[in-house]
Write a structure and sequence with these properties.
Number of strands: 10
Distance between the termini: 27 Å
Shape: globular
Strand order of the largest sheet: 6-7-8-3-9-10
Strand content: 25-35%
Number of domains: 1
CATH architecture: 3-Layer(aba) Sandwich
Radius of gyration: 17 Å
CATH topology: Rossmann fold
Bound molecules: adenosine-5'-triphosphate, magnesium ion
CATH superfamily: P-loop containing nucleotide triphosphate hydrolases
Helix content: 25-40%
Length: about 220
């Protein structure tokens, strides 16, 4: 099987005065179904790395192959299309729309795909079943617990059947019970074939990963 993520000597220099070397010679391979945690102090380059992996930011040097495809020389449009079909994102603060129902929040993720509404609805309901939220489809987010909100956000992330789930502090706003339920869900998703990369400060989260890499001053250690 093709390596999902293959970074070789990736650099990201922000052109400030003086320039910031946010990533320096980062080399990393993530095979399919891996569950990788990235840990490091504030300002060490974790979000920059995640943005790079998510094709939200472009390295200033080096190579990033996603599913075998070299991404650094793709056009912005090609990168957006690849991101939409291959990558799901989960953030600390859920980013759910307050006035929309659970079902609508998940459906909106696929709006750009131009599937008809019935098909999007079916895929949204399937994703909500996968995360154990099929009984809350008509709720608005304010009536859900933090853990339930994060599970809805995860349903939105996996609705388009991505290969890779990128998570930035996914349990940062959750208590220990809700953290445990999100981590159980990650285990299930991985059994279903997803590759997961998580940035976290939480030892409970990194403890559940297969592998932990540390980043310091933009370098993996
Ligand atoms: N747009 C930017 N322009 C200039 N410097 C930046 C920019 N974005 C990030 N940086 C710098 O790059 C470094 C890495 O930032 P990054 O956000 O990746 O850190 P982080 O590990 O995610 O930190 P935290 O744990 O606080 O979220 C920091 O020194 C930061 O100040
Ligand atoms: Mg960050």
């Amino acid at each position: 099987m093709t390596t999902v993520i293959s970074l070789a000597d990736v650099c990201r220099i922000f052109p400030t005065e003086p320039p910031v070397h946010a990533l320096s010679d980062v080399t990393l391979e993530v095979p399919p179904k891996d569950y990788l945690a990235i840990v490091g102090p504030s300002g060490s380059g974790k979000s920059t790395l995640l943005n790079t992996l998510g094709l939200l930011d472009r390295p200033t040097g080096g190579s990033y192959r996603l599913d075998g495809v070299e991404t650094t020389d793709l056009s912005d449009g090609e990168r957006t299309a690849l991101r939409g079909s291959r990558i799901g994102f989960v953030f600390q603060s859920f980013h759910l729309l307050a006035t929309r129902t659970v079902e609508e929040n998940v459906m909106l993720a696929e709006l750009y795909r131009k599937h008809d509404r019935r098909r999007r609805r079916k895929r949204a309901l399937d994703a909500l079943d996968r995360v154990g939220m099929g009984h809350r489809v008509g709720f608005t987010p304010d009536r859900l617990s933090g853990g339930e909100r994060q599970r809805v956000a995860i349903a939105r992330a996996i609705g388009g059947d991505p290969a890779l789930l990128l998570c930035d502090e996914p349990t940062g706003n959750l208590d220990s019970d809700n953290t445990a339920s999100v981590l159980d869900l990650f285990d299930e998703l991985r059994e279903q074939g997803l590759t997961i990369v998580v940035i976290t400060h939480d030892d409970v989260v990194s403890g559940r990963a297969d592998r932990v890499v540390r980043i310091n001053d933009g370098r993996l250690t």
